[in-house]
Amino acid sequence: MAQKHLNNDHLVGQDDFYANVFKQFLACSKPQSCLPEYVSTHVDKLVHDSSLNHDTNAPLRVLSVGCGHGARDVHVLKAIHEQRPHIQFDYVGVDINSVLVQEAQQVFCSQHVRGYVSECQFVVAPIEDYLERLNPSSEHGTFDLILMLHCLYYIPHRKHVLAQCVDHLSPNGKLMILHQSPAGINNFQNLCNPLFEGRKCTRNLQFNSMQVEHLLNDLEVPYSMDIVNATLNVSNCFVNPHDTTMEQAYRKGLQLLSFMLERDMREESEEVKQQVLDLLSRVSVKKHHTGEYWLFHPQVFLVVSKKL
Ligand SMILES: C[S@@+](CC[C@H](N)C(=O)[O-])C[C@H]1O[C@@H](n2cnc3c(N)ncnc32)[C@H](O)[C@@H]1O
Prior knowledge:
Bound molecules: S-adenosylmethionine
Largest sheet: 7 strands, mixed
Strand content: 15-25%
Structural class: alpha/beta
Shape: globular
Radius of gyration: 20 Å
Helix content: 25-40%
Order of helices and strands: HEHHEHEHHEHEHEHHEEHHEEE
Number of strands: 11
């Protein structure tokens, strides 16, 4: 069974630091509205009418795999609720990061969220362990919607977890995966990979939406796929470390690089940092009139159903 210590060699196992670098990444991501917009326009695909149980008005059961600070799950639930105001949710958020889970608990306490979330529960554990303990034949053992937003990279036994999720879908339930495409950050990671050769390396490199599709095909589960365009403002990464007026921006840039490359970039030599920046400048676009650097980072939505 997976234990948290499996992740300790990696950024994702360092609760505080990971929470900060992840939020830095979110702050630089544009547009922020990608996710709710996708959900609003695809709500029919995500929420099957017969899962609504009109007789009992039972809430829709939602599981979030790697819920993080919960804010993006709230965007998803709100977008569904806006399209289908009669829907209420029972939500379970599972994450190994206790710092982010604490924040998620606060986010879900807000009065606004309480308007459409009847019950919420948070579990600090690897998803593998949580699902292992949950019998899909038990009363609350299945979910109408499972969210897996940018989490699969970090999971050691991905195929197993995908199969577990599909097993825990209700008959019309859907698993929504949001994942990086081979372009954007994934391309940048692959370019940087040789710089870290022979050193402790992440297991996520090259794991993009194409590999997710291979796993889904191996599992023989039906799915649909959509691509959304997104960009990342990576300008802070290029701030001069010797410019004392730009200290905060420089620190944010290091956080963003750490998130993208899944290693603590504060510990890297100036030489390696410079090589990383040379590669980043090759894959990003510079707006000459503002001096900003932008990385195109298209992302992929996969909506998975139970095996027919
Ligand atoms: C990039 S963040 C995404 C968070 C959130 N889903 C969102 O989109 O805002 C990935 C999250 O997956 C969590 N995670 C990584 N491995 C996990 C595992 N085995 N089980 C549960 N959560 C995990 C991390 O702690 C982190 O919060």
